[in-house]
Amino acid sequence: MRWKQIIILCLISMVCLVWADPIQVWGATGTVNVRVGDSDEDSEEYAGTANNYTSVELDLDDDTQVGIRFKSIAIPQGATITNAYIEFTCRNSKTGSTDLTIWGEAHDSPGDFSGSNFGGNVSA
């Protein structure tokens, strides 16, 4: 009687393993959402004028360069990033498309946008 229970339990276990979803044990996946949190993490440079790093909004127009810094993002060494994007929320409703040029910098400890670090110049 005992052997019969063991055999039935083994058969049930094998059926469950066949129908189970595969498990990826060699890597981890996930989503990271990061917001700009401090006033020194973003800045605007207007054409012909100084930076504004105290504004509560960013103007993404033809005569403005915008700098955005995302700090304290823990990405393990050797990790593969398969998808990344930046999402902006508009204050005003307008139609038409927007053309943006986006640059990135791979740096472990980038400086903030205070005047002493950038001299009032986002494009530096």
How would you portray this structure in words?
Residues 13-26 have low confidence and may be disordered. The chain starts with a helix and ends in a 6-residue tail after the last helix. A 3-stranded antiparallel β-sheet has the order 2-1-3, with no helix packed on it. The protein has one domain (23-124). Helix content is 18%, strand content 10%. It has 2 helices and 3 strands; from the N terminus they run αβββα. It has helices at 2-19, 115-118; strands at 42-46, 51-52, 64-68. By secondary structure, it is an alpha+beta fold.
Strand content: 5-15%
Instruction: Sketch the major β-sheet.
Output: 3 strands, antiparallel
Measured between the Cα atoms of the first and last residue, the distance is 80 Å
Overall domain count: 1
- Rg over CA atoms, rounded to whole Å, is 25 Å
* Number of DSSP E strands: 3
Number of helices: 2
Low-confidence stretches: 13-26
Q: Order of strands side by side in the largest beta sheet?
A: 2-1-3
- The overall average pLDDT, rounded, is 69
Rough shape?
extended
Oligomer: single chain
Would you spell out the secondary-structure blueprint of this structure?
Blueprint: H1 2-19, E1 42-46, E2 51-52, E3 64-68, H2 115-118
Antiparallel strand pairs: 1-2, 1-3
Provide a quick synopsis of the model.
The chain is of the alpha+beta class. It contains two helices and three strands. The longest helix has 18 residues, at 2-19.
What are its keywords?
single chain, alpha+beta, 18% helix
